[in-house]
Design brief:
The protein has 4 helices and 24 strands. With about 475 residues, the chain is mostly beta strands. The longest helix is centred in the C-terminal third of the chain and has 40 residues, at about 435-475.
Length: about 475
């Protein structure tokens, strides 16, 4: 069952790819094959052409004359090799292989969608390099020899369909074969090769937006983005119980315009866009046009002592998509021009409603971080989770741990007061009172001194009394 579903999906995918076609390849100035922005190979078959299920008005003419003057460029696979040729009888692809011409019922035709590509026939010789922009019959990821679309002018004055084959081992030289209406395959030394000319620039005359005329509203999306973040702190600065702290925050303001990518237009080519109001913009086509500048915003909040608040600058990123129509002029290096009508989608992105958003106010305290080196220390503010909140702080999300901000100041312009080594301001510094242990020690010393004085006084009194008694005894 799973295998059947897999085969069905592969069949659907192959059908979609076959219907949509694939981009053709051209030779770059470095010699490799690159994808063409304007030419595609479209898969068809004889039945579809005869039943008019496939229209050939955008198919590339083969450039031949005579009976095949109305034929278009085609390619088909023969014995595993892709060969280019031209349509015959209006419904088959004729290719020359070795010495014989074959008619194929399943093949690809080369399509120039909206006639966006400018194609030319450039002279080619056997000992000349294939020119830049030559249209290849094989894909850019092919590992086979390079094959380019060509034609040859016969001795009878008729252009014959041909192909130029350049081996991968050769840098630029190859061989050319052609075949006539009678089925003869000829190897020739000179002819013409089909070349896609790359335009020099684009000019767009933008008309009124189709959204306005049809009554449809443009697609608009909005998204909040954070442009800058910071915090405001107040320690012991100022005498007022409540003071407003302010700070200037900078952020990047960016807006862009993108006109999308239109089939058949080459990305990054210079383009001039003329708006309906007369304004002219110069851009690189297919790339967003961005402008970026730095702007500032003053933020502020009322704070009490030992409190802080986090602040974010938030803006609304608006994306608008408008469909438009325009007259496109393609300018080529030789000064020639091609005109066609195109349509696309213009995308604009810009910022709006830029505003500050504040967290709830929270308490902080000073802490000291002592470094291992002497005479080095730092001070920072540490939040204290005491559930502190005020009615004058807008309730927002729970703040993160902020760092000390030296740029914070009070509304009267005063700077934070200097602090000592332990983080105390002058108003917090006080005389250190004696401890209870030192008080007890002083009392004991005082008592011992008094006892010593009393003992000495008592000793001298006893000595005096003894001497007086001895004198009285001798007298008797």
């Amino acid at each position: 069952m799973a295998q059947r579903w897999l085969m069905f999906l592969m069949l659907v995918l192959a059908t979609l790819v076959r219907a949509g076609g694939q981009h053709a390849s051209v030779k770059s100035k470095y010699g490799q094959l690159v994808t063409s922005s304007t030419l595609t190979w479209k898969s068809v078959n004889t039945f579809d052409i005869k039943s008019n299920a496939v229209q050939l008005e955008d198919a590339v003419p083969s450039g031949t004359s005579g009976a095949s003057k109305d034929s278009v460029v085609c390619r088909a696979e023969h014995h595993g090799t892709v060969v280019t040729g031209r349509t015959i009888s209006g419904a088959y692809c004729a290719i020359g292989f070795v010495n014989k011409v074959y008619k194929k019922e399943k093949f690809d035709i080369l399509v120039n969608e909206d006639k966006a590509a400018k194609l030319e026939w450039t002279p080619y010789g056997k000992f000349l390099a294939v020119p830049e922009g030559a249209v290849a019959g094989v894909d850019m990821n092919s590992n086979r020899d390079h094959l380019f679309i060509g034609r040859h002018l016969s001795n009878q004055g008729e252009y014959l369909s041909g192909a130029i084959q350049v081996p991968l081992s050769s840098y630029s030289f190859g061989s050319m074969v052609a075949f006539d209406d009678s089925g003869r395959v000829l190897e020739v030394s000179r002819g013409d090769v089909m070349v896609e000319v790359e335009p020099k620039r684009y000019e767009l005359l933008l008309k009124e937006k189709t959204d306005t005329g049809s009554g449809l509203k443009p697609k608009v999306t909005r998204q909040d983005i954070v442009l800058a973040k910071s915090s405001l702190f107040r320690f012991d600065e100022g005498k007022d119980r409540e003071a407003r702290l302010q700070k200037v925050l900078s952020y990047d303001y960016e807006k862009s315009e993108y006109y999308g990518q239109i089939p058949g237009m080459i990305r990054a080519l210079p383009a001039t866009i003329k708006l309906s109001n007369g304004q002219i913009h110069s851009i690189l086509w297919g790339l967003p046009e961005k402008s970026k500048q730095t702007e500032t915003l003053m933020v502020g909040h009322a704070l009490r002592h030992q409190t802080a608040v986090d602040v974010s600058v938030v803006g609304v990123l608006i994306t608008e998509e408008h469909s438009y129509s325009a007259d496109l002029t393609t300018v080529f290096p030789d000064g020639s021009r091609q005109h066609r009508h195109v349509s696309g989608v213009l995308q604009r992105r810009y910022l709006n409603n830029i505003r500050p958003e504040y967290s709830r106010v929270y308490r902080i305290k000073d802490s000291i971080i002592v470094s291992a080196k002497p005479d080095e220390f730092t001070s920072r503010a540490t939040p204290v989770d005491e559930g502190y909140s005020t009615s004058w702080g807008p309730p927002q999300s729970q703040p993160q741990s902020p760092h000390f901000n030296s740029e914070s100041q009070t509304s009267d312009g005063s700077r934070p007061k200097p602090r000592d080594l332990y983080g105390n301001s002058e108003s917090q510094q006080a005389v250190v009172a004696p401890t209870s242990a030192s008080s007890k020690l002083g009392d004991k010393t005082f008592l011992a001194t008094n006892l010593l004085i009393l003992s000495m006084t008592l000793f001298f009194t006893v000595v005096t009394v003894i001497k007086a008694r001895n004198k009285n005894t001798q007298f008797k």
